[in-house]
């Protein structure tokens, strides 16, 4: 995650906290950071799974079930 992305998440969290009338922006920020990190993790895991499927199918050394 880049500094710009973190700054954008902070801005979103601040706006949401103000909108909700809350004084604790950090909770909104923490949730946004967690969601962004999870999304990145899923994307990486999906890419790894796709690469593994390609290797297995090319080498015919293992079976991979398609979802």
The proportion of strand residues reads under 5%
Measure the end-to-end span: 29 Å
| Number of structurally distinct domains | 1
Structural class: mainly alpha
Shape: elongated
Round the Cα radius of gyration to an integer and report it. 19 Å
Nearest-integer average pLDDT: 78
Topology:
Blueprint: H1 3-20, H2 25-59
Helix pairs in contact: 1-2
In words, what does this structure look like?
There is one protein chain. With 67 residues, the chain is mainly alpha-helical. The chain has one domain (3-59). The chain has two helices and no strands. The chain has helices at residues 3-20, 25-59. Helix 1 crosses helix 2. The longest helix has 35 residues, at 25-59. The chain is elongated, with a radius of gyration of 19 Å.
Can you summarize this structure?
With 67 residues, the chain is mostly helical. 79% of the residues lie in helices and 0% in strands.
Keywords:
mainly alpha; elongated; 67 residues
